[in-house]
Amino acid sequence: MKIPFYRPAGFSVPDYFRFYQTLRKGWLTSGPQNQRLKVLLEEYLNSSRIITLNSATSGLKLALHVKKIGKGDEVILPVNTFFSTLEVVHQAGAIPVLADIDPDTWTISTEEIRRKITQKTRAIIPVNFAGNAPDMEKIFSFAKEKQILIIYDNAHGIGDRAEQFADITVFSFYATKNITTGEGGAMIFANEEDYRKAEPLVLHGMDKKSWNRYQKSNHWKYDILDAGFKYNLPDVNAVLALSQVKYYEQNLVRRESLYKLYKTELEKFSWVRFQRDNPDFRNVHHLLPVWIENDGIRDKIMDALENAGIGYSLHFIPLYEFSFVKKKYRFLEKNFPVMREYYKNIISLPFYLDLKKSAIRKISDIFSKFDAFL
Ligand SMILES: Cc1ncc(COP(=O)(O)O)c(C=O)c1O
User: Fold this and answer.
1) What kind of architecture, by CATH, is found in domain 13-246?
2) Among the four 47, 48, 184, 287, which has the fewest Cβ within 10 Å?
């Protein structure tokens, strides 16, 4: 039995039908399905200031653009994140300042943020990791005091309810995420003015969305309010998320039960450590990373999983490891002692809605072979 690392799940017959209808009707780009998705997200996230996007990366770029973060500004972000969190800061011309992670939650260390704030700090980008929000309340408390913006990279954790502490929050609907449109995302704004500024920029700065443009009289006419981007979510993608949003809470129950089984199975081993939950927010269980306490065993477990046809991954390669980052920023590994240890010991195990409980038991059996040596 092969067990892939990831499988998109949560699609049902009505989704296939709606997808087919979208193709038949021929409205492929942003249109009625986007509108539907927006309404569902507004309700789910309890926000009327939502923009759907072609990716979370686009949302992060747009957030920095709207807040005019650029040359000379410092932006603090965790070392344990996907490259796009740093990429957008770099491309805005601002200075990325990396913060080490907390040894238990594996999210950005608030102590590190406090140490790294300077006169030039314009924003912090806290990142939800694997479904767990960072300590947003604390980050909020010292950001507000110094008028520093919080742009929350919540690519992993839609539904954690931590966006209440951010100026702008970005979600990803990438293929592996809890809700997926293949590629896609969304963002929400705490502030009406930011929302009004950002909304037209998603589609070239047009004063009407293409959907309106082709529906009304004078359909050919549009104005350009500002130089924008091409960040809109096509309807062929948006349609895929409709029932996933509708049934998301139900899906989270399934995710929780898979997580609990993993815990029962793997906490039998004293050398396996799980991510500590942030008690202030809900863990929405995006990934299943575990820390293998014994030096060298992690790599042997990776080999054993590989040989058994079981997928695994690693989240994340520390940002300072990438050639580009080394060349541009010269961050020193020794300044991130927690991340350095984490990177040697972490592994992400298969985790998705239709993962079989028997698969978790099989993974546990593989782990038990290592128990004998320890
Ligand atoms: C923490 C984090 N931030 C941002 C992104 C970028 O998301 P997207 O692929 O939707 O641009 C990802 C994607 O994997 C991510 O894991």
Assistant:
1) 3-Layer(aba) Sandwich (3.40)
2) 48
